[in-house]
Amino acid sequence: MEINPHLTPKALRDYKLVCLAIDKDDRKAYAELMSNYKDSIYFMLLKMTNNPDDAEDLTIEAFGKAFEKLYQYTPDYAFSTWLFKIASNNCIDFIRKKKKNILSSNKLQKENDENLADKISAETFNPEEELIRKQKKEVVRDIVDKIKPRYRTLIELRYFKELSYDEITKELNIPLGTVKAQLFRARFLLYNILKNSKEKI
Question: CB-based contacts of 141: which residues, under 8 Å, 6+ apart?
């Protein structure tokens, strides 16, 4: 594959890491790529969303999508350019969906006010979808049980008990920065387990 001669030394470094990740399935290469851009991606997404929790979640999603499509990357341009485009596009989609959900929620509230609650309930309740959602949650919980206890606790508090970062800090009596850093690593670990799991969810 022909490499763009105008790539910077940093871009060439990243390209070598991409090759190791694809050809050798090198976990350290994945981790180094993530380490190189995690903070800058997070701050870009924080500026776009103005919400630290959303920025954290979208950062891990961006790396997940990039690593899943890593074979599509070509050295015509810097890896960072490609990664930032994935992250920003994903964030734009998230913001659009969030706005749409807010509008839908407002519409539902209006219909409730007009005494249409029974109609809404009948239309939205789907026993089959509820069963599928429950089965997916059980598969995720089984996988969570396989990771290290400290990470497992964080995942359970954040996603099963739905505690905020501040609430987790108080629950575990550890600094907020530690909670965020360890939860970030836990989600990345969980993503890789899910990605390689034979059980498709």
Answer: 160
Boundaries of every domain in the chain: 1-124, 126-201
Identify whether the C-beta of residue 88 lies closer than 8 Å to the C-beta of residue 44: yes
Question: Which CATH architecture describes the domain 126-201?
Answer: Orthogonal Bundle (1.10)
Question: What are the φ/ψ torsions at residue 147 (nearest 5 degrees)?
Answer: -90, 170
As a whole number of Å, the end-to-end CA separation of the chain is: 35
**What CATH class is the domain 1-124?**
mainly alpha
pTM for this model (two decimals)? 0.55
Dihedral (CA of 176, 178, 179, 183) sign: positive
Distance CA 8, CA 10 (A): 5
What DSSP designation does 72 have?
G
What confidence tens digit (pLDDT) does each residue in 183-195 have?
A: 877 777 766 666 6
Q: Of the candidates 164, 151, 162, which has an alpha carbon nearest to the alpha carbon of residue 191?
A: 151
Q: 15 pLDDT band (50/70/90 cuts)?
A: very high
Tokens 């990605």 correspond to what residue?
195
